[in-house]
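$ ./design --mode recover --in tokens.txt
reading tokens...
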């Protein structure tokens, strides 16, 4: 089954080709390019009685080169959206396992003949989940961006058409749905295109289309706007100190003499100077990330847990979280006596109920000094 051929879709119950434009398109979540001004708009209609019509929003569809492009303007008074996941293929946040997700989503579903059914869901933070027959898949990756304003949220999607699929014609059934998650005193609402009761929209694509340049992809950054932290590259990471040396590790270790240190800021807006500063040095050699940390502590340390994968959250500890795209991450915790906990998470439930069955080849050594402890 070719993923892409499914996407070159049409805009009415009778199959027709999506409009094409040579205008420049940037997938940045604003949907204000001239490209979209040339595309017709379609209203999302309530999926059942009692759903407010005015909150449905509208969509636009078109094609740019080998991409099917969609934009949606989704009203939400005050911009009070629900979004808790980031990155690609997250597990949407739920109150309990098996309950509906508690995140607002924009969903596109498509099927060709009786073949696999594909879907992609996007939340207001631009997190997206791609599935085939209900199972997540990683590729082909779409271009996705979303922004939130006081009026609501906007989504832009560019779904890639496989390079081999444009040599023939085809048809697909498509349905687009907006899901507004339940809130206190308000149930979940859904709106869809085509209208309820009319079935999926029959969409088609011509042969041999898709030679134009792809849209540019500039999703808005999430989180703070600080400059990224840089990790120095070395030929070989500094060696671990002798475990029988009671004075090691040392902050003035000669192996780290040429590495610059930075201080961790307090976790607050406009951070104040830290009362107990933590200094970090780190380098990598392409295979190993090495850290040297000095955590100031003039009082006795708190270290009630020991051993691999103990729950260290109540101890004095240093934690580092590594993520390539936000949805899945590795977190490593080390307390002042060298106890280590490492685990892989993918959503907020995993943060609250950590699964520590994952064990990475991590080496740790600590040293408690009168005014600080060294990792």
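writing sequence...
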């Amino acid at each position: 089954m070719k993923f892409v051929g499914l996407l070159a879709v049409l805009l009415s119950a009778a199959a027709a080709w999506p409009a094409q434009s040579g205008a420049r398109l940037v997938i940045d979540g604003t949907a204000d390019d001239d490209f979209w001004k040339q595309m017709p708009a379609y209203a999302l209609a309530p999926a059942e009685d009692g759903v407010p019509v005015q909150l449905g929003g509208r969509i636009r569809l078109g094609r740019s080169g080998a991409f099917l492009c969609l934009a949606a303007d989704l009203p939400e008074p005050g911009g009070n959206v629900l979004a808790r996941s980031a990155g690609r293929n997250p597990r949407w946040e739920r109150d309990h396992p098996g309950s509906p997700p508690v995140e607002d989503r924009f969903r596109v579903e498509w099927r060709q003949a009786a073949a696999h059914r594909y879907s992609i869901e996007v939340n207001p933070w631009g997190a997206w989940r791609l599935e085939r027959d209900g199972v997540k898949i990683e590729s082909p990756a779409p271009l996705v961006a979303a922004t939130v304003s006081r009026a609501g949220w906007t989504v832009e999607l560019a779904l890639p058409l496989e390079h081999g699929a444009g040599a023939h014609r085809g048809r697909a059934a498509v349905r687009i749905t907006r899901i507004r998650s339940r809130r206190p005193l308000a149930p979940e609402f859904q709106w869809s295109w085509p209208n309820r009761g009319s079935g999926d929209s029959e969409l088609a694509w011509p042969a041999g289309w898709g030679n134009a340049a792809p849209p540019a992809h500039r999703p808005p950054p999430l989180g703070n706007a600080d400059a990224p932290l840089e990790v120095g590259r070395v030929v070989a990471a500094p060696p671990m100190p002798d475990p029988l040396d009671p004075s090691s590790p040392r902050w003035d270790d000669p192996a780290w003499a040429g590495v610059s240190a930075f201080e961790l800021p307090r976790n607050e807006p406009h951070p104040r100077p830290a009362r107990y500063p933590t200094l970090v040095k780190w380098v990598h050699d392409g295979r190993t990330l090495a850290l040297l940390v000095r955590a100031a502590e003039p009082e006795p340390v708190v270290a009630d847990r020991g051993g691999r994968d103990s729950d260290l959250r109540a101890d004095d500890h240093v934690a580092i979280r590594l993520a390539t795209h936000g949805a899945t991450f590795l977190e490593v915790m080390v307390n002042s006596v060298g106890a280590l906990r490492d685990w892989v998470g993918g959503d907020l439930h995993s943060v609250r109920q950590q699964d520590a069955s994952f064990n990475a080849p991590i080496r740790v050594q600590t040293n408690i000094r009168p005014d600080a402890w060294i990792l």
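exit 0
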